[in-house]
Amino acid sequence: MIDKTWASAAEAVADIPEGASLAVGGFGLSGNPIALIEALLAQGTSDLSIVSNNCGVDDWGLGILLNAQRIRKMTSSYVGENKEFERQFLSGELELELTPQGTLAEKLRAGGSGIAAFYTQTGVGTQVAEGGLPRRYAADGSIAVASPVKDVRRFDVAGTPGDYVLEEAIVTDFALVHALKGDRHGNLVFNKAARNFNPLAAMAGRVCIAQVEELVEPGELDPDSIHLPGIYVHRIVEVGSDIEKRIERRTVSVAQAAAREIPEGA
Fold it and tell me: Fewest Cβ atoms closer than 10 Å to its Cβ: which of 67, 142, 209, 243?
């Protein structure tokens, strides 16, 4: 039996070196591998290049690595909930490769599937294809690094000709993901929307480290319920179900808000 379990998050990430590239699961604050991120922060690894849909918020998720200035580059599709991210990017401290969300997902999936690149219509006719998007600013506010021009080809798809832009796959040194359940072989089950980018990030990492809320024995998971097979997972750590799970923004109706008000004198 191949037992992929590790005793702690700290041990599981201990060999991630300076300058490593990581694919990290999560969408907003849902499905963040927070125990692994905190362990990486504690061990002091820096100069990281991270691929993730977003970068958490100022004090949680990947935002804690950003605040400690451990991240050199982010490849993301949405970065609007983190003021420190904005500050570092505009001041030239952080490099950003802004990527359309569906394209980012497919770049990760392609990397895990052995596909070197693919063509997509997303971004055709924009700076995504034509180049010139700021990736890093200089201290004086000028563009120090800009996105390159990408190859655009015309294809006739089902009788509809159109232009498509070439996007290269993403493969990273490591991947950090969160799952609801996993077995000792590394098979994973995700919880509803917390699945998000986690399976794709796992596929893209040469070494995938998964934190799970519940660890079970091989054979306990229904094969038809497994979302990611263990072939993509190399290390698995049980973190328990009582780990902190934040909600990025809670919105309720006027009636719900009124019902939750505490009466005077209560």
Answer: 142
